[in-house]
Give the backbone structure.
Amino acid sequence: MAEHLCPKCKNPNRVSARFCATCGAPLLAGVADSAPVPSDTVPLPSGTILQGRYRIEGLLGKGGFGAVYRAWDLSLSRLCAVKENLDTSSDAQRQFAREATVLASLNHTNLPRVTDHFIISGQGQYLVMDFVEGQDLITMVERHGLPPVEQTLEWLGEVMDALIYLHSRQPPVVHRDIKPANIRITPGDDLHRNGKAMLVDFGLVKASDPHTKTTLGARAVTPGYSPPEQYGQGHTDSRSDIYSLGATLYALLTGQDPPESVLRIGRDILYPVEQINPNVSPAIGRVVLRAMSLSPEQRYQTVANLKSDLNAALAAAPEVIFQAPATPSAPYEPTVAMPSDAYVGVTGSSPGAAAQIEDLYRTASSSLPGQPGEAPQAVSAGPGEIAASMSVPDSIQIASDRLVSAAPIPAEPAQ
């Protein structure tokens, strides 16, 4: 897939994106700057001690506005997460002080606690939060495929509980960056056999004021997940989170990133969920599409109403939604062009997997221009699985770790 490098933070974006998913900088001509973006910075090295208390142990993530670190609290002898914001302007510092105070007052089982906050003059602003063990949903889907529909809705129900809590604060607290990457699933325990969902990353959170536009610190967008009003100087409120929640549901139920909201204006290109994943009932699909309405007035007005309708749809069609997708893999969307001498491993889950992989390879070779590569060779086998590797011509592309073409691997016929 072609990519568009951000001119400021240099991170890749989809070619259709209007704003950088990492730093929020405009990508297309004619889009005005919406926020100052810090220049490239070097992450804090391991061993750095902040405030004489927090020892940096490693980088968890980095973007145009700062970074998140794994750290050790020397006073309490426990792990924590330290989020760094590099905007040191006076306005940003005043906003940070106000919002950090709000975040520190939050207490919910599906939110990490903010335990400390401080500003280092000339360097940045810092939030100290609980370190959440586990994996984010992006990583889980990449490694294990789409979870069963029922499990997805259980986890997202916990995220909705957290949002209901945030939106009920006075003033309401709006997250503004809900997406699969910001939902972590903890390891399973006696109370949560499949883990508990935690809504993390408070980088764009702000206390909502209905009389003001979105502040500079909260204007970054995530293409596909941010509603139209979050772009530029638009007004955002709790209904903006509802759009992002619907987009997250869409992605986890279909395996596809939803189209960017501003590109849907004038010609909606959002396909119904149940057309992509037949294990999703039309009733659930309607709930998701309503949550993703372009107009805030047409969306659910509260997360509680959305959750109520989703639960009703879940109860109405258990015979549909209790089935895991037959092939929990990402849809056909080539992302990496391979050089002609590269190898890619492909796996199947039936006794005839090697033959099926070869059929897929031949289909891809014949349907795309270029010279075919070597035929696949079986290299290992395990219970119910055969792996194969092959030389890939430059006309073949891969999505995630799979060779792909428009034709799926055929199912093994019943014996």
